[in-house]
Design goal:
The complex is a heterodimer of chains A (about 300) and B (about 250).
Chain A lengths: L1 E12 L4 E12 L3 E5 L6 H8 L7 E6 L2 E2 L4 H7 E4 L11 H11 L8 H11 L12 H13 L5 E4 L8 H16 L3 E6 L10 E6 L2 E6 L1 H6 L5 E5 L3 H10 L3 E7 L2 E6 L4 H13 L6 E5 L3 H9 L1
Parallel strand pairs in A: 3-8, 3-9, 6-7, 7-8
Antiparallel strand pairs in A: 1-2, 1-4, 4-5, 9-10, 11-13, 11-14, 12-13
Chain B lengths: L6 E10 L2 E11 L4 E6 L5 H8 L7 E6 L2 E2 L4 H6 L1 E5 L10 H11 L4 H15 L14 H12 L6 E5 L7 H16 L3 E5 L3 H4 L4 E6 L2 E6 L1 H7 L5 H9 L8
Helix pairs in contact in B: 3-4, 5-6
The chains are: A alpha/beta (about 300), B alpha/beta (about 250).
């Protein structure tokens, strides 16, 4: 059964001038960890706000746990947890006070649902008397997650929980999500970090308000239409110029210590020709290999 | 050799009470170099950057930025650097052209230079149609590219970039790095922070801060060798997971 359903949702701003969400439809199954992957301005936050009943769509329908986001907004608000992109707990209340406050608002107590937040809360406990505004970014993020979970929601909406957070804290955060998933909570999470996509069961790649594709990360990678190669040599910046201007090459993008390229004519022959071209252009330590695309390769391909 | 150094720090330290935010950091950055300044949240990067930009007085240690003393010549430092962050961008309710003229004016460009620079900038960025539009109406990626171009409008010796590509789409992120390379080729030194580890690979050298200390400083290749890692992601993880401050 689907916990979250969107049918042809449209949301515009400025009297229709800005199309933030453009005919978006998808479903999230019960207990699924679903990722919305896209840059700032893609429409991720508008989708979250519509699903959490904080924003009305211009057209289309959506439901959460079978309840309509427009008609049954009161029921939905009782049942879902929402962690907005911007830290929204009370800065001048302590960690403890914030959690008690949110538990009370939802007619429950911290003790009642402690098992759900325990693993996260133990990391916060040493700072429980500290004001939320005085916490570090990583700790604020953990507190916000606890706050969103305190009433044992059926669906958890996490809008860019890892933006601006370092690699170590990001890894820890995704470990926490895995733990929550095991407790049966449906999770809809958004992120601009493409490397986090593979940690979701299914993902939607979104750009300029439109869904480019929805599937499991593996299937999206399998559907990559071209043969992808990674190239490296001693002078990467000069190499990029040469690759970009090579008539045999369809696209070239930097990926860390390699450039990823697609040949117009994707066969082994082009590969050997390129090595020869690069050798003639005096490149040293040339390395070229056929690789499996990453989600970021797929995203770029779909954007073009 | 000293004349060839654009950033030179010697045991630069900043204390807040008994908390040592930046602890005796010593390093040098050379002209036209792309220097990646990495570290976990709370490692002391922002504090260090504020000192390097002449915005915060160190507790101890020394530094010169573009040849100017970090204690006595902060106004000179500000004139010779550019700064851009993900948050501080441009004035949203001014047009593209107005922003260019405003910031160019602040950096002391003459009317003639301003005119030339704004035309040149609008052309290179392909913003001809948007020149008279409010910056608020531009997509984030364009705003960031414009913000960068404005930050180097006065051809500074150094430009400080604080997470310039956060939240930007993958194609625009790469176009942004093209701009960085072009600026570096003109001799502008780039001092950049990022949470994208693939971008760490695009830097000539990288420093990684942990708990206020520079724990590692080298080229991406050497760092990978040093930590027997296959990616910068692994190097960073190896160093930063030992951080004590991250939970504070």
């Amino acid at each position: 059964m689907a916990d979250v359903v969107l049918n042809n949702i449209v949301k515009t701003y400025n009297k229709g001038e800005v199309k933030a969400v453009n005919d978006v439809s998808f479903e999230v199954s019960k207990g699924e960890l679903f990722g919305l992957i896209g840059a700032d301005g893609a429409g991720k936050t508008s989708i979250f706000r519509i699903l959490t009943t904080l924003l009305l769509p211009n057209s289309g329908t959506a439901s959460v746990n079978g309840f309509d986001v427009v008609k049954d907004y009161k029921t939905i608000r009782k049942n879902v947890g929402y962690m907005p992109g911007k830290f929204s707990l009370y800065q001048d209340l302590s960690v403890e006070e914030n959690l008690n406050f949110f538990a009370t608002v939802f007619n429950t107590t911290v003790a009642e649902n402690y098992d759900l937040v325990k693993d996260i809360y133990v990391q916060l406990e040493p700072f429980k008397t500290r004001r939320a505004g005085k916490l570090s970014g990583g700790m604020k993020q953990k507190l916000a997650l606890c706050g969103a979970l305190i009433h044992r929601p059926t669906v958890l909406f996490l809008d860019e929980p890892t933006t601006g957070v370092d690699v170590v804290s990001r890894k820890e955060f995704w470990e926490m999500l895995k733990g929550l998933k095991q407790q049966g909570i449906t999770i809809l999470v958004s992120t601009p970090y493409m490397d986090e996509a593979t940690l979701c069961e299914r993902i939607a790649l979104i750009q300029n308000g439109s869904m480019m594709t929805i599937d499991t990360p593996d299937n999206i990678i399998k559907q990559f239409p071209d043969k992808l190669f990674a190239v490296k040599a001693d002078n990467m910046s000069r190499l990029q110029n040469v690759l970009r201007n090579d008539p045999q090459i369809k696209s070239c993008f930097s990926f860390g210590d390699f450039h990823h390229i697609i040949f117009k004519n994707g066969n082994e022959h082009s590969q050997n020709e390129l090595i020869q071209t690069l050798q003639e252009a005096n490149f040293q330590n040339i390395e070229i290999k056929h690789i499996t695309p990453s989600i970021e390769d797929c995203f770029i391909k779909l954007m073009n | 050799m000293t004349s060839e150094v654009v950033i030179k720090t010697d045991k630069l330290t900043k204390r807040f009470g008994d908390f040592i935010a930046t602890n005796e950091i010593t390093f040098e950055v050379y002209p036209g170099e792309i220097f990646g300044f990495l570290g976990a949240n709370g490692a002391g990067k922002t504090t260090a950057m504020k000192m390097l930009c002449g915005l915060s007085t160190p507790s101890s240690g020394n530094a010169t930025i573009a040849g100017f003393d970090i204690y006595k010549q902060t106004e000179e430092i500000k004139k010779h650097i550019g700064y851009m962050s993900q948050k501080f961008s441009l004035y949203e309710d001014l047009t593209v052209i107005e922003n260019i003229k405003f910031f160019g004016g602040i950096y002391g460009l003459s009317d003639k230079q301003l005119k030339e620079k704004s035309n040149e900038l609008i052309e290179t960025l392909g913003l001809q149609r948007e020149a008279k539009k409010l910056v608020a109406s531009l997509p984030l990626g364009w705003k960031q590219k414009l913000a960068f171009s404005v930050a180097v409008i006065h051809e500074p010796k150094i430009v400080f970039l604080d997470e310039p590509t956060g939240g930007v789409d993958p194609i625009t992120r790469r176009q942004f790095w093209d701009l960085i390379y072009q600026a570096a080729d003109r001799g502008i030194t780039i001092f950049v922070t990022t949470h994208y580890m693939d971008e760490a690979e695009y830097c000539n050298r990288i420093s990684i801060m942990v708990d206020g200390i520079i724990e590692a400083l080298d080229t991406p290749d050497n760092l990978k060798k040093q930590f027997s890692a296959t990616s910068m992601d692994e190097v960073f993880y190896e160093l930063a997971r030992g951080a004590k401050r991250k939970s504070d």
